[in-house]
Design brief:
This protein is of the alpha+beta class. It has 11 helices and 7 strands. The protein starts with 5 loop residues before the first helix and ends in a 6-residue tail after the last helix.
Length: 343
Amino acid sequence: MDALPDDVERLLSQAEERIGDVPALLALAEETGRTAPDPGEGGTVRLWEMLASLAAVDVAAARVFEPHLDAGAILKQAGQQALFDGTWGVFAAEGPGHVLEARDRGQSAPPAAGVTLSGSKPWCSLAGHLDHAIVTAKTQSGSRQAFAVDLRSPGVQVEEPLWISHGLREIPSGTVHFTDVPAVPVGEPGWYFERPGFAWGGIGVAACWVGGAVGLVRTFKDALSLREPDQIALSGLGEADRLLASGFELLRGAAAGIDGATLGVRDDCNGSWAHALRVRGNVAAIVERIQGIVGENLGPGPLARDERHAKRVSDLRLYIRQHHGQRDDAQLGSLVLKGKSTW
């Protein structure tokens, strides 16, 4: 990665001091969100470098920042940036047995009532710590739409999550139940998934994965500096460096395309998502290979005795499972059949 500006270096130092302290990290994310660049406005590469650099310090810290900054970008894309105050999450996952419905209170309701949400939403990370969230819900017409909600509303119940994983332990994701919770529509029905920004946010997550891999390779390099490395270790370090360089180029190329309006024009949303699937899939493969290289070369010692390394391995292993492997490739294959290929 390129040399970082002084303000990002200060951010990383502050994040380092707050590792494991979720409220402190959220406060730092809220402060950062006031000035951080949004994707598609000329500073996409700077945004992704910041997220990757945070993940290199601590994967969970980047996992705190990424959805908050994404929520700010979503609200701006919808022309509702005035809502961006406090701390935010983005809850768009679906799960068996969980349905969240949006209901129009109708003409007889007070004007302030508007739309309310009722039902449940799974995989709501940090819901008990956040002020607000953008959530997707099923409308009365059967489509899906995004809504902004105040998570401190009386009708919000945050279920204590069952979280046995050692990965991202400070960021458990559980179910949130909504009962007639007032909500503000964010974009029209279908807009949340159809906008180019949906693809841009997906690549931002991949930037965090690359950053986590950077942290692993730094630990690997430091370990080799303490002993005379053999050819196998040097080969592993060289391959990891080559893979990281490829990951950085993928992200830089995507950022340049987004800011140059060659990716993400509004009449080519499927093309934007196809490109995001390519970037995310290639980055996931890079990161998983680096995990293997570092694990094979360092052996069990750091996993058993180096708390920071063991945490990074567990955090990254869980985080990267947001990539769905062959299912994401199947989505891409479907788009290629529709003409969204690069060859």
